User: Fold this.
Amino acid sequence: MAFNQEDDPNPAAEPSDRLGEGAAPGSVYNPIYYSYLYTDADGKRVFQGTDGQLYTEAFGEDVPNGFAYVPYSGPGDRAGQPPPAAEPSPAPEPTPAPPQPTGGGGGGGGGGGAAALPPGYSLGDLIKKWDVPFTPPAPQQGPPSWLPAAPSFTPPAFQKPPEFTPPEQFTAPAAFQAPAAFELPTFTAPTAESIQADPSYQARLAEGQRALEQSAAGRGILRTGGTLSDVLKYGQQFASNEYGNIYDRAAHQYATDVANKLNAYQTNYQTALGSYNTNYQNAMDAYKTKYQNALNTYQTNYQGALDAYNAQYKSAQDVFAPLMTEYQTKAQAAQRQGELDYQRAYQQWLDSYNMFRQGQNDAWQKLYAYAST
Assistant:
């Protein structure tokens, strides 16, 4: 007796090599290999075949051989569940009895008869189909108890230095004190009285009159009315001419005095302004120096605090990194453990099937050898 495709889950190959459910008897064997992808919300394991389609597992008495890969259409479908009850199939043809040796006459021997099965065998056991369904291990619900909780990273707190406090407000020096306002002197024009009171005027007038009288005396007309008239006319003309000269000298002296006073005022003003500017700049430079020193101190303190924080942060990371690595390693091991449990359970089921099949084959071979003798 030979096992057909429906009786054989192809134990000689990986479980993914078997024909799927519904393969026609006698069809050309074209193995499809399956790769595990994930477990869906209904707990069904989902695989991808080498044909690019998705499959899941089906178990049960109504599934050929108790196990098969069937197309997967998403959570909630009946893939992997016992199919609805099918119409009863016609009774199989009776299995022909194994060949029986015929009895021969001779020597008082009895007539031939049907040979009995070897001791310890029954025909029902020999034609029994494999009816042990594969029961996958229950999927892991949540993380295993030995997997510790995921570590959490707690960074240190940054200790910020005191806020920057600038030095006291800049204080300008005393306000600029300009010298007394410049006052233009008053010009006093010469008068007739001031001209006549001028000694030089009197000397030049007397000298002119004396020269005029000597000239008239030389001509013998000193005591005449004409000489007296000439002396008076000379005095008037001399006074007129001399006034202009004296006025010009007074105006020139006035201009010189004004210029000297203005120069003195401007010199005093520039001196006072220069002194104020120097004092202001010195006060500003001193304030800037204090401000920069305070700022440098704050920046130094801040950088020191930041360096300390970075060192503490690095230390915290050095402690956290191996804990996270250990957790990730264990988490991956836990995920892999479920896959290994499934593969181990399937391999045990497959080994049991191989032992069953080998036993059936051995029994049939012994029966055939027994019947052929």
Remarks:
- Residues 192-320 form one domain.
- Residues 1-30, 79-115 have pLDDT under 50 and may be disordered.
